[in-house]
Predict the structure.
Amino acid sequence: MPKTHSPGDRIAELRKTYSISRETLAERSGLNIELIRRIEEDGHIPDLAPLVKISRALGVRIGALMDDHEELGPVVTRSGEAEKPPRFVTGLPGEVSTPSNAASPHSRQGLNFHALAADKGGRHMEPFIVDIEEDAEQDNSTHEGEEFIYVLSGKLSLEYGKNRYILEAGDSVYYDSIVPHRVLAAGNGAARILAVIYTPV
């Protein structure tokens, strides 16, 4: 099995390749340099929006921050493979306090993103299985692109602009990501969703 790399690892590698300092990346992306440090060193990601902004600043597609190796043909993810440790976890700073390679994903409250096609080269969509912890919290996210969500289990609360939608297992939603949004578990217990994220090149 090839060694996997977190988005933070990829960002650091790309910065080194392009000779871009953290200060320059922060300026180009409009992000705080401390946030970039935490993403690279601690695996901290408050929501997906910073990854989109960083990919834009580096001149790469967002998938380049998650690739392990590129496969030009179909990429098959077998049943159970999505149960492996998440590729990354999002959540408010207080929710994610341990490094990404320490402890199990369930020791960290947040949204656990399991990448389904990280080996697919040249892709324009990012499909994930996302486990949303019962007490997870995160900021509103806004970025270019579109998102599709299908609820696999549990109950989901989608805050979209000024509206709030409750979705149950079997429900789905498709929306523009530029509108401020966030997803949380609703009711008692965690929720699991299939999320497909598209960002324009």
